[in-house]
Amino acid sequence: DAGVTQSPTHLIKTRGQQVTLRCSPKSGHDTVSWYQQALGQGPQFIFQYYEEEERQRGNFPDRFSGHQFPNYSSELNVNALLLGDSALYLCASSAYTGTPDSPLHFGNGTRLTVT
Amino acid sequence: QKEVEQNSGPLSVPEGAIASLNCTYSDRGSQSFFWYRQYSGKSPELIMFIYSNGDKEDGRFTAQLNKASQYVSLLIRDSQPSDSATYLCAVRGLSFGNEKLTFGTGTRLTIIP
After folding, report:
1. Pick from B43, B51, B96: which is nearest to A108 by CB?
2. How many whole angstroms separate alpha carbon A83 and alpha carbon A14?
3. Looking at chain A from residue 17 to 36, which residues have their Cβ under 8 Å from any Cβ of chain B?
4. Which positions of chain A have pLDDT values less than 50?
5. How confident is the model at residue B8 (pLDDT cuts 50, 70, 90)?
6. Chain B partners within 8 Å of A31 (Cβ)
7. Among B93, B87, B102, B23, which residue's Cα sits nearest to residue B51?
8. B14: how many CB neighbours lie within 10 A of its CB?
9. Residue A62: which residues within 8 A CB-CB, separation 6 or more?
10. Do the beta carbons of residue B107 and residue B87 sit within 8 Å?
11. Fewest C-beta atoms under 10 Å: which of A64, A109, A111, B97?
12. Which residues of A touch B94 (CB under 8 A)?
């Protein structure tokens, strides 16, 4: 049973460029969330997708956008990269049940470095 | 006040002893509570989650929840060197459109052989 898979593992970009990160959820999961984790901090919520729609969004600028596909996989796009966007980007998936007993499982993350 | 606060670290515990990790949260609407373990450079790994008041045990790990006090803790019994990691506490609401996880900044735990 494959867990949450993310690609690429590492990425180096230059300021002003655009980047796309990809995520495939765990089998049986239909909800995908993205988090940004800066060094020494806890993960910060970017947004969540369910049924191909953005259902909830954190305090991130519009430069951060996403998409969910019919097979539940997801992409995170970041435009006009800033040095401060350097972080570990985590994808988490879960099965929407509307009950408290549906934990999130994280992928291995994508380490983005902006130079 | 931070939404989720964890006891400041780093925390050092002798091998075989009990490690106690604490977390408080501000949103009384929080419904479920998670403990993740994160090794350096790796992604968070789910250890336990709890959503009812009281204790929940899984092997060497026990999660404790007190919603009235807005407090959740994780006990690690018979601590092993492999338990050395950063432990992240996270809380989640459950109302439609409010299912994001809010994390604390983590507590770094070191088990001393």
Report:
1. B43
2. 8
3. 31, 33, 35
4. none
5. confident
6. 99
7. B93
8. 11
9. none
10. yes
11. B97
12. 98-100
